[in-house]
């Protein structure tokens, strides 16, 4: 009886050992299959290829967008380039500045720069900065923008001619019985008016009246009211007040 029990125990030990060995063999057989190894090796390169291809495509796309943006920016910048203005403070001698230098002034382009040079060559030189308003295309507004940026060496203004004094100067009351008022004679034609009439204008005394007459004789007459700014002794505000009472004309007779 004891012998049968020992035999049974021995058989059960063998079965358990066989089962453990079989399970171990089955586990290692499953994990060491060639298919699994090949699949693992195959999956890794594909992932790397996809990542590399995506990265390369992203770089190409980013570079293309960057180039396109650069071209658009360059094109937009070239289309919106404005006419240069007086961005930096400059002072130019208008009797020696060339066309490139003159275009640095606000409102002066290539055409006006050439007009300034042509006027300077035909007239010899600018006698003062106000004379630049005689250039075709340059009016009071442009002159106001550039007057602080231009100059001439030794400016010259018209000097009144001195008249010899003969005897005592008679009183005005003895020369005329009636002195007209500005309201009676306005508008005054500054191209034909005599000295006494010109002296009725505000801020115009005998000296200023002589300078107005001398200027119109030398220049062949005033072409516009703004040329009063060329008269030495008249400020901008003085000329503006005088303009309210004057007119320009050659056929009209002075009052």
Structure description:
The structure is a single chain. With 255 residues, the protein is mainly alpha-helical. The chain contains 10 helices and 4 strands, in the order ααβαααβααβαααβ. The chain has helices spanning 2-31, 34-79, 99-102, 110-123, 140-146, 172-175, 182-185, 195-198, 206-219, 236-242; strands at 92-93, 150-151, 188-189, 246-247. Strands 1-2 form a two-stranded parallel sheet. Strands 3-4 form a two-stranded parallel sheet. The longest helix has 46 residues, at 34-79. The termini are far apart.
Could you give a short description of this structure?
With 255 residues, the protein is mostly helical. Helices cover 53% and strands 3% of the residues.
According to DSSP, the number of beta strands is: 4
Largest sheet: 2 strands, parallel
Series of secondary-structure elements, N-terminal to C-terminal? HHEHHHEHHEHHHE
Globally, the shape reads: rod-shaped
**C-alpha Rg (nearest Å):** 50 Å
Arithmetic mean of pLDDT: 75
Report low-confidence residues grouped into runs of 5 or more.
34-55, 66-70, 72-84, 251-255
Number of helices: 10
List keywords for this structure.
single chain; 255 residues; mainly alpha; two-stranded parallel ribbon; 3% strand; rod-shaped; disordered C terminus
Topology diagram in text:
Layout: H1 2-31, H2 34-79, E1 92-93, H3 99-102, H4 110-123, H5 140-146, E2 150-151, H6 172-175, H7 182-185, E3 188-189, H8 195-198, H9 206-219, H10 236-242, E4 246-247
Parallel strand pairs: 1-2, 3-4
């Amino acid at each position: 009886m004891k012998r049968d029990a020992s035999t049974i125990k021995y058989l059960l030990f063998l079965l358990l050992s066989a089962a453990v060995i079989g399970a171990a063999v089955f586990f290692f057989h499953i994990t060491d299959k060639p298919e699994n190894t090949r699949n693992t090796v195959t999956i890794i390169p594909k992932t790397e290829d996809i990542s590399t291809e995506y990265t390369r495509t992203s770089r190409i796309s980013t570079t293309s967008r960057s180039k396109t943006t650069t071209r658009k920016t360059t094109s937009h910048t070239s289309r919106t380039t404005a006419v240069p203005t007086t961005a930096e403070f400059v002072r130019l001698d208008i009797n020696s500045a060339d066309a490139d230098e003159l275009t640095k002034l606000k409102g002066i382009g290539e055409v006006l720069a050439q007009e300034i040079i042509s006027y300077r060559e035909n007239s010899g030189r600018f006698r003062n900065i106000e004379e630049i308003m005689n250039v075709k295309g340059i009016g009071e507004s442009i002159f106001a923008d550039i007057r602080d940026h231009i100059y001439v060496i030794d400016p010259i203004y018209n000097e009144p001619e001195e008249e010899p004094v003969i005897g005592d100067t008679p009183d005005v009351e003895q020369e005329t019985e009636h002195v007209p008022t500005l309201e009676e004679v306005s508008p005054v034609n500054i191209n034909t008016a005599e000295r006494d009439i010109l002296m009725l204008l505000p801020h115009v005394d005998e000296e200023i009246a002589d300078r107005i007459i001398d200027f119109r004789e030398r220049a062949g007459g005033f072409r516009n009211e703004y040329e009063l700014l060329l008269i030495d002794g008249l400020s901008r505000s003085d000329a503006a007040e005088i303009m309210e009472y004057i007119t320009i004309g050659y056929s009209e007779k002075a009052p």
